[in-house]
Fold these 4 entries.
Entry 1:
Amino acid sequence: MHATVRIYAGANDLADALVEREDEVKQIISEIEGFKAYYLVRTSDGATSISVYDNEAGAEQSNRVAAAWVAENLPDLSIAAPQISAGEVAISF
């Protein structure tokens, strides 16, 4: 399994916007081949998302899809590009 963590610093309104459009977010992320899980965490400085896929290709595609969706659907939010970390899941339970 592979996971991608996207940290959106200074984007306090992002979590609210994603929750309001949860069905759309679920559709675009879960349609990527190998989808396992998605989590959105509200943080004191914005939001962090975690996407889990069967393989690296799915995790990388989720980054492209997420960036395109945010740009297209949330243009009024001032969101800087997230810090992205990705890799193989070492422990899962």
Entry 2:
Amino acid sequence: MNQKELKELIEFLIEKDIADFELERGDVKVRIKRGVEHAVSALSVPHFALHPAPPSAPEITAAPGAPAAAPVESTAAAPAAETGLHTVRSPIVGTFYECPSPGSPPFVKPGDVVEVGQVLCIVEAMKLMNEIEADVAGEIVKKLVANGQPIEYGQELFVIRPRG
């Protein structure tokens, strides 16, 4: 599948207002998921790399032999509407866990004061537990996801009011 075919596919999906599409052709697998953010990802595309599509279409990137995603950041974060709030986003796709083990207290809850590097939660991805740490010191204002919820790359997890 070349770049021209992918561009035509994206234009067709936009025209027909198709939100989720997956295609497997031999050893090439492409998944396109559109929503409010028009995020598109190309997965498991061995032996060649795709270049970004024109600005009018969603962006596609891929690395040989490795999954790639092209997240689209929203320009205005609703939870961070109050001036000066910081949003912690997921660096990976996985399952959100608020505590180290079932029955344990959560790492943090709204109202807690956190330091830079303090563990906020765990995101499980492919049986690996990834600790997500605070990148600013301050007070947890809001937790935006539920325990055990599947999350996407770039999804907002916590809102922190930085110290200062």
Entry 3:
Amino acid sequence: MTFGMYGALFLLPLTWQSAGTLDPVGAGIALMPMALVFVLVSPFSASLAGKLGTRRMTGGGVALIGCGLVLIGLTADSASIFAAEIGLALTGLGMGLATGPLMGAAVGAVVAARSGTAAALINVARMAGATIGVAVLGAVFAIAHGGPDGLRLSMLLGGLVQLASAAVVWTTTRPATALAR
């Protein structure tokens, strides 16, 4: 879930600043759609997961993250940052939808005495994904000599990893009806 998102958080401001599109403060402000959408959506993820199921929420959320990153990649050479803002908002939407249900599934899969361990392990996995994402996507960005070409290649790769992860979630997680039996 965090592989591509943290790669975008690292590479977008770097690209905007190196191209002279935005200064550091402007680049920070331009990242806000992701955080704002996440904050607005995440309080509703538990009730939505109750209605739609964990599989749809986590798989769909991770797929939305992938779609946001693909959009950022496809529009990397645009003179406007508008499409990147939409991509960031999609990424925030996906994070907001997937994070709560994912945490709930991880903690709910173990006995109460092990819930702290489960929560800690999911956080380690999130941070490992973020670290690996920044390293891999940053390396791809550098290999492509940075700029719009590097951003395009790294965001498309990040988006494809997220979409593949969504497919894994969809195929390995039981539907809500199967969990009720």
Entry 4:
Amino acid sequence: MRAWNELTTSGRLGRAGFWLRHLVGLPIGLFLCIAADSLVGPSAGLVAAALTTLFLVSVWGRRLHDRGRSAWWLLLTAVPVAGALLLIVDCAFLGTRAGGQRYGVPGGVRIDYRTV
């Protein structure tokens, strides 16, 4: 069920995972959007675009959690240029916040049934 975790905003995501998903996952998603639209039709392209958008919201939301912020900060993209630039700087270039443990398991800790 690992693939399902790529479409949820729960949990955390470090800077390396954030960049990896943008350098590998995003081009694949965009290719699938174009291919589905060209080969099957606009309705398939719309479904692929919706899944790619859900993937991006998940990646950015989990990275914001790692930074100690809520995924609601994604609404900053409604502010034309400044909001998007603020999110890019905050998520892509700044490290993990030490005190930001409100969202998910702290970085580097694995929780399973054997943990006491």
